[in-house]
Write the structure tokens for this entry.
Amino acid sequence: MSNTVGSRVVHVNADIIFSSATEKYYESHAIIEYHALTRVLSGEMRIVQPDRSYTFIAGDTFLLPRNLPSAVIKQPKDGRPYKSVSIYIKPGRLEDYYKRHAFKATQPYNNKIKTFDKHLLLESFFASLLPYFEMDEVLPDNIISVKVEEAISILRNIDESTDNILAYFEEPGKLDLVEFMEKNYMFNLSLEKFGYLTGRSLTTFKKDFRKIFKIPPGQWLTQKRLELAHYQIFEKRKKPSDVYFDAGFENLSHFSFAFKKQFGYNPTSLLS
């Protein structure tokens, strides 16, 4: 799900993506199921996570690990539209790669965003991708495989600790439900995704949730998000239009309706 204005996404195929935004662009809270190597070409990208936020501008390169709840804001900067190139590094391609190359993971899995300094190998790699977006025909999969492997090799050459992310293939294990939900409730994810990230089936997730919180997860999530929004508006004096997205709502009208239903008054009344 996304809320976009003046945005465009071009796929070479499902693995290489060029995106742009001429106006402010919000991408819904989501989880990317594949590692994503991204270069910002122009504009600005802000990624918000429970423990910190990141701001990336033209020339920045980073690796976003898979299954990491995030809110992403893309917008123009310095009079230039937002543009970026991303390459998804899928588990199947990684497993094939590491069957042929010894990995050097020296630490436990690190699911934090990894940034990379400017490097000629990265510059030449992303420059080689741009002409693909001018093609009318679909890029063959064998060429995609070569480019993905090139990306992996470059990252490992630049920073060996990249293996601590790329060489980890385990699915999420069963996590403490209270700790995870209190940390991630503001991300507008499906209950299936919350279940997956806590190592549970949807049925088990709902059962465990009711046992712990005494109410259905959907009801609890709405209450927590509205409480967060109320605090941001009343205590921080933020406008509802600047709050609803960060509180986990897809659009302002739905947020305003839910807010009034919960508290009995419109969110704007808190600012008067």
